């Protein structure tokens, strides 16, 4: 049996400790973010109560299947109201991209490129062939590839990029809202028309009715 | 400290299930595109046939009729006067020749009630 001894320099120990700390902080941050997202989805889901309340209270809808069918229609109608603006933004972005490709006859154009697209507005790095000097962990050296700058030739990317980012994020929020409302709708369908016999005793009910009759 | 570790565990849980959750939302977003197209076609047809978009479902029409009927009933109840069989002193004060009882009168009544109780 061979024993493997690993000797760590002070620099390596500090690096490992810092990495562990960063991982823990990132995990806690993601936990809080996930909790926030769940709370937002629960808040969005409550809208279904407002949409179906009147029909249930006035007893126009009075069974589970009818409730689900009616709730689904109202849910989809509300989703359309939420999603039509981001869809218009996305469609405008694609129309601009189509016009650009038609003008320059370049159907392989990448609107997020760092040379003639939306990527010209960001810092980007690329991997070099060299590595850092470390005993255990060696990192590949990164080289700055692009610094933010405006380029007139990238006009299509400057329109398409924000349209897709804004419209896409907005649409995903509307879609997650649709999903949360659907989940709550199915939960409500089980409880709203539920009848319970907990604590009900038929003999006692009959006896109470007899007493009231004799008193009258 | 416990909440910190709870946050840490939640973070690990969300990292593991985040891809699945995101895939679910993306699939639902794709389904939403079909829902959007369906609703667009339906609204276009409703618009050109002259139907009201707010009461497109027959359940909404029935709910509207019931709520309007309830409103009319509450309006009628508000219009009819309520008969007050037990007017307060303030209302009696407005009646002619009304003299409100004084402190002495009230004390006399109380002593009379006590005497009748003692006799019993």
Count of DSSP H/I helices of chain A = 5
Q: Helix count of chain B?
A: 4
Shape of chain A: flat
Query: Which percent band covers the strand fraction of chain A?
Result: 5-15%
- Please give the largest β-sheet of chain B: none
Mean pLDDT of chain A: 84
Low-pLDDT runs of chain A? none
**Rg on CA atoms of chain B, Å:** 36 Å
Q: Quote the average pLDDT of chain B.
A: 77
Query: How does the helix and strand content of chain B classify structurally?
Result: mainly alpha
> For the CA atoms, what is the radius of gyration of chain A?
31 Å
Spatial gap, N to C terminus of chain A:
97 Å
The total of beta strands of chain A comes to: 2
- Topology order of chain A in helix (H) and strand (E) letters: HHHEEHH
Task: State the strand order across the main sheet of chain A.
Answer: 1-2
Q: What is the count of structural domains of chain B? A: 2
Helix coverage percent of chain B = over 70%
User: In terms of structural class, how would the helical and strand content of chain A be classed?
Assistant: mainly alpha
Low-confidence stretches of chain B: none
Most extensive contact: A-B, 33 and 32 residues
Describe the structure.
Chain A is mainly alpha-helical. Chain A has a domain of 113 residues. Chain A has 5 helices and 2 strands. In chain A, helix 2 packs across helix 3 and helix 3 packs antiparallel against helix 4. The longest helix of chain A has 41 residues. The model of chain A has no long low-confidence stretch (mean pLDDT 84). Chain B is an all-alpha fold and 120 residues long. Chain B has 2 domains: 51 residues; 68 residues, no CATH class. Chain B contains 4 helices and no strands. Chain B is elongated, with a radius of gyration of 36 Å. At the A-B interface, helix 1, helix 3 and helix 4 of A face helix 1 and helix 2 of B.
Short characterization:
Chain A has helices at 10-45, 47-57, 64-104, 155-191, 202-215; strands spanning 124-131, 140-146. Chain A is mainly alpha-helical and 216 residues long.
């Amino acid at each position: 049996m061979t024993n493997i001894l690993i000797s760590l320099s002070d620099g390596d120990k500090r690096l490992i400790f810092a990495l562990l700390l960063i991982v823990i902080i990132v995990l806690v941050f993601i936990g809080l973010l996930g909790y926030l997202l769940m709370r937002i989805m629960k808040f969005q889901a409550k809208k279904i109560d407002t949409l179906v309340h009147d029909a249930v209270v006035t007893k126009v809808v009075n069974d589970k299947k009818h409730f689900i069918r009616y709730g689904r229609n109202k849910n989809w109608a509300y989703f359309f109201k939420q999603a039509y603006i981001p869809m218009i933004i996305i469609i405008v972005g694609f129309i601009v991209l189509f016009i650009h490709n038609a003008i320059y006859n370049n159907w392989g154009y990448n609107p997020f490129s760092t040379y003639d697209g939306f990527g010209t507005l960001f810092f980007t790095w690329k991997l070099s062939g060299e590595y850092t000097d470390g005993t255990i962990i060696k990192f590949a050296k990164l080289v700055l590839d692009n610094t933010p700058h405006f380029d007139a030739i990238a006009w299509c990317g400057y329109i398409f990029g924000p349209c897709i980012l804004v419209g896409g994020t907005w649409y995903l929020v509307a879609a997650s809202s649709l999903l949360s409302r659907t989940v709550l709708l199915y939960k409500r369908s089980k409880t709203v028309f539920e009848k319970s016999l907990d604590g009900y005793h038929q003999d006692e009910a009959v006896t109470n009715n007899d007493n009231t009759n004799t008193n009258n | 400290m416990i909440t910190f570790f709870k946050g840490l565990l939640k973070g690990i849980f969300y990292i593991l299930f985040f891809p699945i959750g995101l895939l679910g939302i993306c699939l639902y977003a794709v389904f939403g595109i079909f829902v959007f197209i369906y609703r667009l076609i339906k609204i276009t047809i409703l618009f050109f046939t002259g139907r009201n978009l707010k009461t497109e479902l027959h359940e909404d029409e029935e709910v509207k009729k019931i709520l309007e009927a309830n409103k009319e009933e509450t309006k009628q109840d508000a219009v009819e006067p309520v008969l007050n069989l037990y007017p307060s002193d303030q209302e009696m004060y407005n009646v002619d020749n009304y003299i409100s009882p004084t402190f002495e009168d009230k004390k006399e009544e109380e002593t009379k009630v006590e005497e009748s109780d003692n006799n019993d």
